[in-house]
Amino acid sequence: MDFHLDTLLQLPNVTVESCTHQPNEVYLKLRFLTEQANCSHCEKLSSELHQNRPILIRDLSVFGQTTYLKVPRRQFYCRECQRYFSELLPFMEAGRQYTRRYEAHIYQQVQLSSIEPVSRIEGLTFERVQGIFKHQYAQKKTNNGKELSELELMKLVNAKDIKTSSRLSETLKREN
Ligand SMILES: [Zn+2]
Questions:
Q1: What is the DSSP string of 48-91?
Q2: Of the residues 92, 117, 149, which one is the last residue of a structural domain?
Q3: Are 109 and 74 contained in the same domain?
Q4: Nearest Cα to Cα of residue 136 among 93, 95, 107, 110
Q5: Average pLDDT for residues 3-31, to the nearest whole number?
Q6: What's the gap in Å between 82 CA and the centre of ligand 1?
Q7: What is the pLDDT of residue 139?
Q8: What angle in degrees, to the nearest 10, is found between the helix axes of 126-144 and 115-122?
Q9: Measured in angstroms, how far is the CA atom of residue 35 from the centroid of ligand 1?
Q10: What is the pLDDT of residue 176?
Q11: Does the pLDDT of residue 158 top 70, yes or no?
Q12: How far, in Å, from the CA of 156 to the mean position of ligand 1?
């Protein structure tokens, strides 16, 4: 659609087909530039599209506005293994509702503050932010083979949240 929008989006083989607005929300409908995908079982290329069920996922905010991507989720048929497979996307993990970069951003923000303020700023529930944080941490742990410290980290983050909420209730008590 828009060359500049595609450039800003920074996702490979993707073009923005349309862009719609709602108050403080932006929706970008994406289209893939490739007609084929590698089979997740045998790696062979397939262009036999079986079905496409687009999903809505959260991405980093654009100019302070909550941003969602409407991503095609394509399922192909592989002649080689005679099986169906869902296309793997480099910018999001299968089954997640966020882009990888959004999850990385949330992880970083929680480390800098704590879950409670991040959930407020991002308009996500506490559980969702906690879920993203745990997921990211588990991934990092697998990547650098570190063990044990997940519990420590969650304790640290939760301790911060407990402090925040007790501080908040103190303030409320004082105000009443
Ligand atoms: Zn295959």
A1: EEEEE--EEEEEEEETTEEEEEEE--EEEEETTTTEEEEPP-TT
A2: 92
A3: no
A4: 107
A5: 93
A6: 7
A7: 85
A8: 120
A9: 16
A10: 46
A11: no
A12: 45
Task: Say yes or no: 120 and 176 in one domain.
Answer: yes
Domains in the chain, number: 2
171, amino acid identity: T
pLDDT in tens, 40-52: 999 999 999 999 9
Q: Are residues 14 and 30 in the same domain?
A: yes
Question: CA–CA separation, 131 vs 142, rounded Å?
Answer: 17
Q: Which domain holds residue 121?
A: 98-176
* Residue 143 Cα to ligand 1 middle (Å): 27
Examine the domain organization and report whether 83 and 21 are in the same domain.
yes
40 Cα: distance to centroid of ligand 1 (angstroms): 7
Question: Same domain for 4 and 87?
Answer: yes
The Å distance, Cα 17 to ligand 1 centre, comes to 29
Q: How far is the CA of 81 from the centre of ligand 1 (A)?
A: 4
**Same domain assignment for residues 82 and 13:** yes
Averaged pLDDT for residues 101-118: 96
**How remote is the CA of residue 125 from the centroid of ligand 1, in Å?**
39
154 CA from centroid of ligand 1 (Å): 40
pTM of the model as a whole: 0.80
Show which of 63, 92, 121 is a domain's final residue.
92
Q: How far is the CA of 78 from the centre of ligand 1 (A)?
A: 5
Using pLDDT thresholds of 50, 70 and 90, give the confidence band for residue 141.
confident
